[in-house]
Amino acid sequence: NIRSLVKVPNAKEKSPISSFVIYLDASGGSGTRLTLDTDESYKLDLVEKSRNLEARITAKSYYGLRHGLETLSQLFWWDDAAGRQGTLRVLSTASIEDKPSFHYRGLLIDTGRQFFPIEQLKRVIDGMAASKLNTFHWHISDSQSFPFESSVFPQMARFGAFSADEIYTAEDIKDFVDYAKIRGIRVLIEIDSPAHAGAGWQWGPEYGFGELALCVDQEPWSLYCGEPNCGQLNPVNEQSYKILEAIYRELLDLTEVRDIIHIGGDEVNLECW
């Protein structure tokens, strides 16, 4: 049930496979937006006919087909012991029916405390895709930094990013979202609030918006927050809500995620209020 796909000079055995054809069928699937109701199941059949190898993947969505292709790729391996240079191997017969046990299979990355360039985040997406995870939970901001360059409120990154070079533009996020979507992954972006909101929220008085956040960088920090740097949104300033809503609208338009939202919500310290 193992076949060699690469003809290797001076190898003891020759490849018995002359062609490898992959058939994909997602008839009946609707749309390409991943939701909690998306059917990600698939069926994979791998058969050998004469000197031809055929893989057939059927699914009810693009995401099911993608998972089937991911599984198919894991039926290949490189055999170092074949000949002088090794050869590529593949199973010649397989039948797999698979579906996820959980509709939400996520990994959280925190760029509020540590900035990661988009190219590094894409490497995370590649690893998630190989494991069939489907949700990249992007904890994009925290008390330490606000790296998203909002087109509505650019002051957030201007006052909140670690540096002018450590920001994510709308174009960066759209590119990342598209990259993830092809690999079967939704991007769920979280602006942590009402706590964990310090850097990026300091500009209110200067622009006539009042105090948007309280206890920013307050000391001793142990009295006002779970960890330094401190900061919580001002619950009696209506501008804080309006700014947060506008930023979320902007991010939701970029990610196209409509059935889930995450606002953080952890570690509110009443001493700050």
Automatic annotation (TrEMBL):
GO cellular component, one term: plasma membrane
Domain Glycoside hydrolase family 20 catalytic: 102-273
Protein EC: 3.2.1.52
Any GO BP annotation: glycosaminoglycan metabolic process
Catalytic residues (positions): 267 (proton donor)
Reaction equation(s) it catalyzes: Hydrolysis of terminal non-reducing N-acetyl-D-hexosamine residues in N-acetyl-beta-D-hexosaminides
Enzyme class (EC, first level): hydrolase
Family that this chain belongs to: Belongs to the glycosyl hydrolase 20 family.
Protein name (Swiss-Prot/TrEMBL): beta-N-acetylhexosaminidase
Organism the protein comes from: Bracon brevicornis
